[in-house]
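Hi U.,

Before I forget, here's the chain from the pilot set. I'm dumping it here mostly so it's searchable later in email.
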Amino acid sequence: MKLKARAKINLTLDVLHKRSDNYHEIEMIMQLVDLYDSLEIREGEGIEIVCSHPFVPTDEGNLVYKAAKSLQKYTGTKKGAKITIEKRIPVAAGLGGGSSDCATTLMGLNKFWKLNLSLEELAKLGKELGADVPFFIKGGTQLAKGIGEDLTLLPSLPPVWVVLAKPNLGVSTKEVYLGLEIDKITKRPNTQAMISAITEGNIKEVSNNLCNVLETVTLRRYSTVKILKDRITQLGACGTLMSGSGPTVFGLCSTYERALKIAKSLGTLAEEVFVTKTTDWSEINETN
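Structure:
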């Protein structure tokens, strides 16, 4: 069984306050895009993980491994699997690659092992593995609240071309949140305006309402990210934003030709650049 684990971008990301459990209360709109890792599930003894990326663990530290073990524990199945991950989504980039691989594993093994669990059951298991794993189980365009697990499905965003650009640096999500001064944030997302723009299919207003409060930390600490974002804007993107805690920046484009021109013009500002598009795909997509 071959599956696609798609990436996400944040159209909005607001951090409201720090909770008593030390997590942050957030409100954000996430959007699935058609950049994906490829997962292959085969019969195997126990749980074996193979990954093309040298820095991704293949032991119990891998979310895919944890997903498989979680399903075994929840259902009592003794079945095993060999799961091969071909990485295309940049690692630690703000695009949710690890969480998407985890969610896709839950959905894939549910079918491969004939467990017949509902999406709600899978989402509940996913929440224990990562706050945004449930999003990747449900996909599409979603409003997320709480720590990211409280999801509301929004109307599908019309397909729009996206340039994804990751500079050659790593950003710690934990450090970004620790550096966030919530009481000093002056510009926050207008979530309702973004929802209205999405509902109307108005890409111009979607672009105008892009906002991520974590930029107040990452762009200040890493000038390369700010330079990259400014450059994508200068090259004619309809709107630009950092995804998640970064460092990946994306630009929304009205045409494929514009997106490709921007991608080819970034030069050494970005280590990895992709041209993709938004998608409302939210089911397992078997490639074979």
